[in-house]
Amino acid sequence: MDKTVFKNILQFLIILIFNNFLAQEMPGKMSKNGVNDTIPKRDTIVIKKESLEDILQTKADNIRRDFPKKMVYLNKNAQVKYQDMQIDADYISIDEQKNLVYARGKQDSLGKIIEPVLTTQAGKKYETDQFSYNTKTKQAIAYNARTEESEGVIIANKTKKYNDSVFAMKHALYTTDDYFIKKKDTAADYHMLASNIKLIKTKTKSQIITGPIQMYIEQVPTPLIMPFAILPFSDKRAAGILIPSFGERQDVGFFLNGLGYYQPIGEHFDLKILSDIYTKGSWNLRPEMNYQKKYRYSGNFSADIGTIVRGIKGLDDYRKESTYRIAWRHTQDTKANPFLTFSASVDASSTKFYNNTLNNNYIMDQSVLRTQQNSTLTLTKRFLKLPATITATASYAQNFATGSTDLRLPQMNVAINQFYLLKSKTGVRQGLLENITVNTGLNITNFVQTNQGEFFKKAMWDKLQTGIKNNIVLGTNTTFAKYFTFSLSANIDNALTTKTLNKFYDPIENVVKNETVKNIAGYSTFTTSTSIQTTLYGMLKFKKGSKIEAIRHVMTPSINFSYSPDFGNPKFGYYRNYNDANGALTPYSIFDGGIIGSPTNGMTAALGFNIGNNIEMKMKSKNDSTGVKKIKIFETLSFSGNYNFAAKDHPWSIFTFSGQSSFFDNKFKVNTSLSLDPYKILFLPGQDVGIRTEQFGHFSVQGFNVQASYPLSNETFGEKVDYAKKYSSKGEIRNENYYFDEDNYAHFDQAWTLNINANYAYTRSSSSRFGNKIASVGLDGSIKLTPFWNVNGSTHYDMITKQLAYTRIGFSRDQRSFTINFNWVPFGQYKVYDFFIGIKANILSDALKYKDRSFPQTNAPF
């Protein structure tokens, strides 16, 4: 009984204690009636978090585990994969207690790393000698880490990775040398060295920020030291300041050249604005825009606007002049729209712009030698079903010698595609009638010749001429007697203009005056012509065994007859007369000097001839695979002239000869022309102006021209040498390859070129005693001193003045990742030099460059 009571009491106490424990206040939420829940909302058992968030995969040729120390050692071809990171090394150790992974590259017997640790993360590869990574904090420390970014590579003695976006580097270098990046060389040809570099990476771009940084060339330090540098690495364009060059000149003072800003505009445009500033008041502003839309169009726009100030204000040598240049190039892809195309080639400038000595670029590219330049805008419309093409143009032509400009704005041409007038009955066109073709079109032009002072002013508009011209050409041809071709054609011109000419003699001023009359007038003219042409062949064969086997002569003679009436007849009203100072009646056309031209004066009934020749020689040659070599003695040799039956005097025209030939494997080219006046010219004693008589047969030279050119090169005097086959031994100095002969002399392909051109021209009018001569010899060429050293130059010698004309000498050095260029004009009016060193890589091309140049000191104050 006692045991039973005791047992019941014990059970009651246990239940009471347990209920009391459950009734204790817990830190849980209150129930709706204000009483705490007896069961808490969280588990009472806490599971310890794993030290690794993912599986750590390992492999190696030799794996050893130290369970007491919780270490894993991987030797030979070791590899660890963790999340997006993979480490490949010769040796890897894993500390499971400290969550550290340590990797080391392969060592030689002296302990030098000969194969680096390769770490790959998010598709990016890093090379290091040693590498430590904390799998918990995801921070890392690397030694001699090599990181490739964009166009360059960064190598740092020590690199600390704070996270996937921030890397801090100690004693690091950066270079864009492609050979060094691809490990073709152990030293970079240049590098930038900084004590501290921070690499910041995001999903879309990355950049490095440095402290003081110094440039080294071929491991030699240079004076180029910058207090800091920011280099963005991104496939996208980024805006930024363009660093200028600076210096001092006596004529314009201290200067900053190329100070500017670059701004990308959308996906297809970018804008660069450069400025040149001079302390003596001169300045230049040079905006430039480039644009491109793939498969649609591309182009660029540039301008150069500025003011030149020279001398001292208040003195006689003071000069202030404004200059400008506007250039625009636009090209449309032919596939964009075959029925509507637009192109632009604009180059307009002030008259003395290219002689602007603030910048010698235009001296080096020979723009200062320009005598004229043209600008054109063209819009062409084609049709799918209509046989017509409409072309609208606007053109602007400048003559720097005279200062005049020719403006055509706008000009429109409507061309009808050639068509046959009659249909063929059989499907094969035969005879004259079925072969009649028609070509026609309409041209509308607005034209004015003016100067810059009158541009778009009333004086210019008063000179503006408008003209409309229609041309119709009918032509046909047929073959007869098997070997002869007969052609017949007619040409009809119809023209209208808004201005005509009234010419009269003013006895008070004793001059002939030209008066412009504003009225609508026009003319119609026509000419007809017929011709017969054939081809004759001749062959002269030599004896068997002779070196010359044969000479072939191909002759293409033709005769033609042309007729046009006398449109100077008063019944047409195209010509009028005025009395000159002597009272003589002098005819003139009311369309003289006009935009549509003038009708011909006098009847034409001319019989003309032309004889074309082609002469070739065939000779034996051991160098040719066929054993025979053809030499062109004359590619073309022609002789032409005509006789006008309707002419009252001098019926014979001037006879012209022209020829073209090439020798020495078609390299030595010669072009020549000769014009002869068949009538005798008499000169009175002491007079240089002669009288052209009617005596036929006294031929005098009116013009003669010879042009010759010959390109020479190292291949001209021998076959191209295959150095790899000819020489067994090969050596390399940096990226220059050399081949060595048995005596250890180095050889390489030392290519050179030399172009020789000569020109002689003689011209004389039919009534002058003396003519004008032009004679010059020009040379231009280049030579490779080494595979990457190139020297080039050009010069011209005027044999009339016995002086050298424009001469330029230059050399260039391809230094793998940067280039060196030097150009020099040693004498003449523009005696200057230009020296440039610049990095090729786009990321540094605007920042790391050195430019030094001289300038002509014309009009300098002292």
From TrEMBL:
Organism per entry: Chryseobacterium fistulae
UniProt name for this protein: LPS-assembly protein LptD
Domain of life: Bacteria
Residue ranges constituting the LPS-assembly protein LptD central domain according to the UniProt record: 208-679
Pfam family, one: LptD_2
GO cellular component terms attached to this protein's record: cell outer membrane; transporter complex
Lineage of the organism: Bacteria, Pseudomonadati, Bacteroidota, Flavobacteriia, Flavobacteriales
PANTHER family: LPS-ASSEMBLY PROTEIN, LPS-ASSEMBLY PROTEIN LPTD
